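Worked Example 4.2. Consider the chain below.
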Amino acid sequence: MRKYFGTDGIRRIANTELSPELVYKVAKAGAYVLSKHTDHIPTILIGRDTRISGTLIESAMVAGFLSYGANVKLLGVIPTPAVAYLTRKLNADAGVVISASHNTYEFNGIKYFSNKGMKIPDTLEEEIEDVMESGKLDKLTAVNEKIGVSEYCLDLVNEYIYFFRKNFDDNLEQYPKDNFVVGLDTANGATYQVAEKIFKALGIPYKIINNQPDGININQNCGSTHLEALKKFVVENHLSLGVAYDGDGDRCLAIDEKGNEIDGDKLLAIISQNLRKKGKLNKDTIVATVMSNLGLNKYVKENELQLIQTKVGDRYVLEEMLKQGYNLGGEQSGHIILLDYNPTGDGILTSLMLIQTMLEENKKASELASIVKLYPQVLINAKVASEKKYDYEKNEDIKQAIQKLETEFAGNGRVLIRPSGTEPLVRVMIEGEDQDYITQKAQDIVNLIEEKLK
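Applying the procedure from the previous section yields the following structure tokens:
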């Protein structure tokens, strides 16, 4: 089991669990692993969100990179997908995002991107950890003229803004936007400035909230994890749509004109339908995770599309897309990957695809979202002995209980059991047509698992 990296980079409480000393080691080892096959001085980009600990972590990373002999370009506060895009566009050797995404401000994290603008695979994260633990770091120290240098490149965000102008300007300007206004919630995070600049550049009328970060209010009752304020804002201001980003800007959820949520599954369906009409949905396929709602499965079948499901995590969605040549994938959380544009989730890109679809089809957000009927879903954790959390598949009583329930559902519900990757828990997720019924059934299975695997 990996010691530092989890399912989405390293994420811990800043300045205690994620200490400057640890960050320095992660940077030095990462610079070595990600550039050891190059024959030039490596260049690494660093972006961050608005957390109070951001500059602390950034300083420790810069020290680690420079100590190895890598040069650094500091991008400042910028969304995760912008770092991915710029890493690839500038042909840098790697990119780093300092962010804990949707977590509260006391957390921070480190995500590495390869020179192709993609999150690095598990194997490279494991190799970085091996180097950190091997005692090699002292030998990886640059001296004299080989010490790296850093520079602030805050204007590179304009390249990211131009990316959207290049891809959307000509199309969006042909549609009338009378009485069309979008509400933006930037979660006091990494999109707090750039989202507004992009919407202005594209001529999309907007009203913005939660764009005054103070270092500790990132994701605080705002953004894609707390939609209540945006729902109220959209309804009270009679807006056409609301879009909410998370702290690092790689996710987007939406609110229709009636105040109803449009989650990642519905976004995938809406975008897939639009792409398919244009002949741009590769292999008529959507890639999602096993946590996607049964409603998305039904939509896919009714529209003669294909749904490929992976284990939870956007990196696994991307791996499947790359392997099979698909170009649309994502998660319920609003992490949507549009591979024709960027090899990572991009909240602003996702929102623009939705807005473009609304304008092209002259439909309200609620009309577009109605193509998917979401099933009630409940998730309850069973507490088990850590060494037994994978044994649920071997226990006959547990297997029979699951099979019996699936037979009862007859295609109008499903049971998903999966062990936690980090805790002594087995997660029980059930979908069906009746919320009370599936909640009771989920609790029954949790009780059985806890009894058998204690």
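The chain is about 40% helix and 20% strand. Residues 130 and 157 are 34 Å apart (CA to CA). Compare this with Example 4.1 before moving on.
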